[in-house]
Amino acid sequence: MTSANKASFRVAVIGAGASGIATAVYLQRAGVAFTIFERAGDVGGTWRDNTYPGLSCDVPSHLYRYSFAPNAEWSHEYSPAAEIHAYFRGVAERLGIIDKVRLSSEVTRAEFVGDGMWRITTTQGDEGLFNAVIAATGVLHKLVLPDIEGRDSFAGTFFHSSRWNHEVSLANKRVGIIGTGSTATQILPAIVDEVASVSLFQRTPQWIVNVPNNPFPEEKKRAFRDEPQKMAELYDHLNNLFNQRFAASLVGENDAGLAEMARACRQNLEDNVHDPDLRRRLTPSYQAGCKRLIVSDKFYPAIQRPNAHLVDAKITQIEPAGIRTADGLLHELDVIVYATGFDPFAFFRPAVIVGRDGVSLNERWKESCQAYRSVAVPGFPNLFFIGGPNSPIGNFSFLRTAEVQIGYVTRLVEMLADGMHREIEPTQEATESFNAEVEQAIKHTVWVTGGCTSWYFDKQGKVVSWPWSYGRFEADLKQPRMEEFKAA
Ligand code: NA7
């Protein structure tokens, strides 16, 4: 490709959430033109969608930030959602990304038309041809509303936690929350003072680690501002704790760490839940770390408030007046909040992606979502994923994960933009061999050995996450191994 071609080379980025914004920054630095298509009317992805009371990230703020945009201003060790959303929006504005975002333009179809080119269609119509497509569509965007009998017959108000209805006041209302994940355990303490009563419908208890969420005093922020090295040291410390030691404990590479985590969770339960019967009902039967660990110093005090009730009988149906459980009780409610999570296997969906020979990614992934090292799929040249299948998922920084993938994908895109190749896709053999390795390694992770189910599993029992250490992830994606790609 000549330099004149490079000038006309352009990339379609799908999604202007945390990973889409970072992708744009990397492409911009590489001098590659791009357009970001965003379905919603604002940037920020999950931090735009989720506005429920009590929401903060369960990864420390000084770890949950881009490498290229340290932030001295975080208000808390785990800062609230609005601040995180403002951070992403601020980065997009400051680095000139926002002007390249096409809002309210949901990609409905991406079709490979040959000779390295993709045609993109959005809800606004035909967007023309692009030389590469990067799907930065996030992991937790497709909400799950469980199919409970009578769900829609409820006479009060109900909504999913990620579509919080701020028009409904909860003051003096009887509120039911379904679920006990990170979301439910953040909502309950945030509303307990305001509501008449709150009933938490628990299917499975959770292990909770007691971590306070301290504010950063002004002098600390000033120190971060004046001496950025202090922030860098804090980042390194948190990275070592979460992305290295904690991540390793989940995949069978730090058994002492896993045991320490289990001990801390049990101690939290013993120290902070006083009634033995409630403690028993809140005690999980699986190993700590099997489900995503909950970080909270507020949930146990809140569930012991006189107007909070733990309901652990199975939900049998929803009726106009409330939720009926298997013990025959009707729990009368005014509002039901579904804190029932997301489908992490939705990836780019509902968009249709059609690769070589007219094969759609939906067909290709009918049985299981398999990719080459989380970033690409054979038969889909010049299509790359950020946060794709088997990306590391857990209580560590998705932003760091995303940046590792973005750096790798940018190298491949630069090869295309520089005219070294017109098409790049992983080979079938390399993809199969990678997935066979994943299948073996996953057996040694606590997600499998820990005796629980979680959103980390698909219906075939495939685990969504990375079954090795973070170190291996970074090493694997340091540099493309071109012998594992077909490049034309
Ligand atoms: P999660 O962690 O997927 O939790 C969903 C919760 O909803 C979990 O406790 C489920 O119970 C429960 N659930 C789901 N369906 C039902 C039905 N039908 N009946 C009763 N309970 C149900 O979602 P979150 O939103 O809390 O967190 C998602 C991620 O966002 C989190 O990991 C952080 O990264 C941020 P189960 O445990 O399956 O028995």
What can you see in these coordinates?
By secondary structure, the protein is α/β, with parallel strands linked by helices. It has two domains: 3-142 and 343-487, FAD/NAD(P)-binding domain, CATH 3.50.50.60; 151-212 and 237-338, FAD/NAD(P)-binding domain. The protein has 15 helices and 21 strands. The protein has helices spanning 3-8, 18-29, 46-49, 81-94, 182-191, 218-226, 228-250, 255-272, 276-281, 299-303, 361-364, 398-417, 428-442, 446-449, 470-476; strands at residues 10-14, 33-37, 101-102, 107-114, 117-122, 125-130, 132-135, 157-160, 174-178, 197-201, 208-209, 294-295, 308-311, 315-319, 322-325, 330-332, 335-338, 352-354, 383-385, 424-426, 485-487. The strands form six sheets. Strands 3-2-1-7-19 form a five-stranded parallel β-sheet. It has a five-stranded parallel β-sheet with strand order 8-17-9-10-13, with helices on one face. A four-stranded mixed β-sheet has the order 6-5-4-18, with no helix packed on it. Helix 6 (218-226) packs across helix 7. It is globular and about 70 Å long. It starts with a helix and ends with a strand. The mean pLDDT is 95. The site of ligand NA7 has 22 residues, from helix 5.
